[in-house]
User: Which sequence fits this backbone?
């Protein structure tokens, strides 16, 4: 997005796709977090680290989508931070390879990270 782009102009297809990836990742992280909360009593330290990563990723992806939708001048920086949180979350989820929900979450996180990195470099 350039500084000259009007708030009334439509979002680019790339930005729309990035927003959708962020919201999909947010939803997937929330669902995984909910599932982890029901099993956290037996999970120990690893489960706690995964839950923290899920919370961070969920919040940052939602916020990143919000900033893109309102064309915030801070979008590029937020996309960079969002990509980092998504990668960290994907790595945390991958530590439980037998959990199908966490594997879906890792996939959504990696996809979102890729889209956000792309957005950060094109803004």
Assistant:
């Amino acid at each position: 997005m350039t500084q000259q782009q009007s708030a009334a102009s439509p979002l680019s297809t790339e930005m729309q796709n990035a927003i959708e990836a962020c919201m999909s990742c947010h939803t997937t992280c929330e669902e995984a977090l909910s599932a982890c909360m029901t099993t956290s009593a037996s999970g120990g330290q690893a489960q706690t680290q995964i839950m923290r990563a899920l919370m961070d990723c969920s919040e940052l992806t939602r916020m990143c989508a919000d900033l893109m939708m309102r064309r915030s001048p801070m979008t590029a920086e937020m996309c960079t931070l969002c990509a980092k949180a998504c990668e960290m979350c994907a790595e945390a989820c991958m530590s439980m390879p037998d959990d199908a929900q966490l594997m879906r979450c890792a996939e959504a996180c990696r996809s979102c990270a890729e889209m956000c990195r792309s957005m950060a470099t094109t803004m």
Remarks:
- The chain has a mean pLDDT of 90.
